[in-house]
Structure prediction request, 699 residues.
Amino acid sequence: MAGIHEELEPFFNPKSVAVIGATTRTGPGSFNVMENMIWFGYKGEIYPVNPRYDEVLGRKCYKDVRDIKADVDLALIAIPRHIVPSVVKACAEKGIKSVIVVSQGFAEVGGEGKKFQDEIVETAKRAEMRILGPNTLGTHNFFDNFTTSFIPIEKRDYEPIGVMCQTGLFFAGFPRLKYGKIVDVGGICDVDHVDIIRYYAEDPKIKQIFVHLEGLRPGRGKAFLEAIKGAKARGKDVIVMKAGETKAGREAVMSHTGSLAVEDKVFEGVLRQAEAQRVRDYTELQAVSHALLKLPRMKGDKIAMLTHHGAAGVMAIDILEEFGLRLAELSDEAKKAVQELSPPWLPIGNPVDIWPGLMGGPERMHRTALKAVLDDKNVDGVLLSIHIADYSAWPVGAYGHAEAIKELAPQYDKPVIVVPVGDRQEGTRRYLENVKNVAVLDNLREAARAFLALLPSA
Amino acid sequence: MKSKVLQDLSLKGVEILSEYEARSVLQEYGISCPKEVMVEYKEGRSGVDYLSDLKKMAEWPGYPTFLKVISREIRSAVNAGTIRRVTSDDEAVVAIDMIIGNAKRYKEGVSINGILASQDVSTRETREIFIGAIADEQFDHLISFGFGGIYVEVYRDVEFRVIPIKESDVYSMIKYLKGKEILGAFRDMRPINMELLVDTVLKVSKMVEENPEIVELDINPLIVGPDRAIAVDTLIRIRAK
Prediction:
């Protein structure tokens, strides 16, 4: 049996693909997979298959997949469900080892659908073929310019993130989740979460794996746990969004344990055992994903906060505590450095209120305070809640906060998270975007969640 | 190594172990249980008779002790009123008659195996812990661990992990328990013996791993303190062969 990489690579990066159910309808609203494939820049061979046409998008169209002379790496099936079983058989005869079934209406609807699905699975098993789907958008791969999505996706920058989901939703991506590869496992008749996690774990292009999951195939729980552990052991971060409570597959119970073991609670424990990051919504997902990609790990859980506003400090104290993080006890050296630029009446603590000290020169104060906490051995991570104004009557650079961050943060091995305040932030955000060890997040809660993901035990 | 006791019971078709049987399984795995003695139940005998027999036995735990009716038909002794804590012979005699009466009221024609005296191992410094395990379609067997006692299902302060677990998993479970501070020095109580507690959780994991016929298991409570981790009340259900 081939390794998982060899087995699944054709789904993401085939040398050739047969599009079964290819259509001549093109343009906006046509949801033409083949058109998307070409538009997205796929360089391999595309073989349209549809008995109704002789030619599709300038390529010879075949009546039957078996008529194609050349080898076919992947078949993409988008035809009415009742003919899918016979077409999968034809694919097996053609020697195709990877098949995506886009069509819907199988086991998920029961009845005949279940019967069709059983037939497909049986054929696949005999032919040692892997099937993705049914009811799937398939895959999308920015690294190799391949897509099976019938919804067009434009080229963009991407990160070394591999996504697997039980929906097409995540194909759209998010501003802070620019995945490089994605797969929708759909109705999971064969290829499942465990396979995909193993595939991504072996993929040198992938550094972070995001798993959206509603339910596992029966009996795959332990393998799921081991697959995540395997990915972690290869130095990859794993983020999981588990949604939907499904009934636990368990006999009637008489114990406390049984009634306590609701699915969500069990998954929570399993993900903790696997040391995966669990997220519950898009905001948390993006904060955690971005932090893990961009920021160094912390050596402990002690945070120093610099702020222009005492009020933000008060809010942050509550939130950090809620997340189980600690405020660092600043060293005497750090306190002294800040005190020297602050009025003598100001007690220097943590959060560090740098506002009074700014009066004597904001540029110098920002630099001194940031350097003090970055130098401080008691500090594992730095949080800045600062007033950012892209517009100012003062010349750019007069405040010196963004400049200080850009200059100092890359010199240390500590995460610096900036939570800006101000109604025009775009310029400053762009300025800090690619600065090493720095992330700009939208609010204090996200910052706290991001720090949590960076803890040494995380 | 599989549990000998469990194998025998499984062959006999037993599904729910009596407390006495459950205790033997725990002891096979080196999990401490309170000192206990049991005398057989015989219709017509009185509290005085049972007590005198109990006290004659070498393992008689002394006072304070729990007296309990042993019957496969009674799931919760607390709910059935068939358990009583006593501190003297006088209390014991009255209590035995009372719990036998309650057992008969609980279910007509109830079959009673015996009267059990079980050492009260709680002290001013002990805390109540919960350890459980359950067979699961997805994860084979899960272990749960958290704060126990009668409020276990109210607070639900327990963590689940997939069996087998390592020592670091137990510490991770503790880290996520909301009430974890109760395990440390708390008010005028000394911290509990963490090693004993962790060791007990690991022994349960091993026991379930080696005996996958265990479908459900509750140890509630496990009495823990600065010098002890003792399984007081244990429920084990197995899949009959």
Chain A touches chain B at residues 216, 218-222, 225, 248-251, 253-261, 265-266, 268-270, 272-273, 457 (CB under 8 Å). Residues 94 and 389 of chain A are 63 Å apart (CA to CA). Chain A has 16 helices and 20 strands.
